[in-house]
Structures are given as C-alpha cells and as structure tokens.
Amino acid sequence: MQISANPGGLVFHFSSVKRFSSEAIVAAPLGQGIVHKPEMSSEWIEINQGLPDQTHINRLQVYDDELYACSNKGLYHCCEGEWHSTELAVSCYQYKEFGEVGLAGTSCGLWYTEGTEWHLMMRSDIIVYDFLYLPQYVVLGTNEGLAILDRMTSSWMNYRYDSAVTSLAVYHGRIIGATEHGDLLVGNLKGGFDRFKMGSTFVFSVVSRNNEVFACTDRGLYRISRIGNRISLMALKIGCQVTDVDSDERYLYLATLFEGVQRLERL
Question: Which residues make beta-bridge pairs with 169?
Fold first, then answer.
C-alpha cells in the first residue's frame, strides 16, 4: 500500500519516516520540511511552524511520544504542532535517549544533555553521523570511518575508510554499518570489519527496530539475518529506493525516493 505525501500534488523524495504514537505517521520529504498524516486521514499535513527557512531534516526520532528532528540547523523538538529549538545549534545527524540523558551526533562531535544545557561529550574534531552507546564501547560513525572508544580502558580504536560511515546497528553481537558510498560494513568477530559491495546495490542505511535490523537500499528493503556465522539479507520489498523504515506490530513504514511513503504488512 502506498501512502504518498503530496502537498501541491507532488510525490517527494523522503529521508526519514516515523510511526508517531498509534494515531499518526510523520515523514520528512527532502528539502520540504516535515509532514504528518493522522491514521484516519488520506491527506498529509505540513508541520513546519517554528523551523527556520531552508531547514533540511536528516533524521526523525520519537521517544516517549515526543518527536525530534535532527537537522542542518540543529536539533528541534515538536510540542503541540510547533517546533522548538533544543538549543543545540550545530548540524545534528542523530539523536538518542538513554533514560534521562540525551545524546546527539553532530558536525562537531558527540554531545549530551541531562536537561536544557548541552555539553560536548567527545571528539569535537570529527562529524558524527550515527553512534552506538554500548555497555563496553561507544561506537561512532564519522566522516573518517569508525571510531570506537573502549569505556573500560578509555582507549580509542580508529578504522579509517575512504568514505564516511553514516548509519550503525548491532545484530547478534556484530556491529553493522553503511557507508556514504553504499557499502555494507560487518564486524568480523576478529577485532575488525569486512566491507562488502553488494553488486550494483547501494545501501542507504541500516536501521534497528526492536529486535530486527533492516538494510534500506536503492533496490528495496531487506531484513538482515544470518546463515550460520554469515550475515545474509532477506528481501522484504524490492523495486523501490528505500531510505528509511519504521515499524509497529502490524506494519513496516518505508520512506522512498520516488514512490512516497509506503506501508508494508508484516508476514
């Protein structure tokens, strides 16, 4: 089922989609701000009030029914249909919450907040596109590749590639990543990473939802699985360029480049 966003009659390129509460879907058309669609409505409604002009949305996030937008103008929080700055004014690419602490990947490192004030946490010298905050490690996907902090020894491991690592996930104890050139990175359980070019397929992102990890590609949506010790990809929806995915108990919600926002019923 396709649920195209069409303010002005156009189908936009989408960068992000989120299931927002049980009553609405929120999506970010590239360069067009943010739109939302109530469950019982067939129309998308723009919700851009409070966002500066020429705001580009990198990711949407939802925590405890609170909606956040990571953008080139900083991190914004939506309250009663209006966007408010969180006072993090640098370009933001990822936001996650861990209890009362919020972490943000930005154009100048990883930042944290426990209230209204933001503080630099680590690595102001690099762009952090995505991150994992694990019991022993902090893993950063950066403009240089991967930077991994061992929290026990406070030592860094740096894996430099010829492209940025733009998204990260964990699957059965392995770190999975996607690069800006569409390659898939997979932890090899030997202290390093293997880099795979999947033919002509371009991996836009890897996305973790509950206990599943998905690969969003220009050929469609895949679920990451394994055969023995090998990582494999199982096709869920092919024939469209999928950039992001969210889910609930019944459906997967796909942001695509040319076919709007699509809803795929779980099997």
Answer: 176
Q: Do 262 and 34 touch, CB atoms closer than 8 A?
A: no
Show me where the domains of the chain are located.
1-63, 161-267
pTM of the model: 0.92
Q: How far apart are alpha carbons 38 and 249 in whole angstroms? A: 18
* 177 within 8 A of 170, measured Cβ to Cβ: no
What HEC string does 113-155 produce?
ECCCCEEEEECCCCCEEEEEECCCEEEEEECCEEEEEECCCCE
Residue 196 pairs in a beta bridge with 184
Query: How many Å apart are CA 10 and CA 162, to the nearest integer?
Result: 36
Average pLDDT, the chain: 90
CA distance 151 to 137: 5
- Residue 141 has which token pair? 């996907």
The encoded tokens of residue 41 equal 């409505």
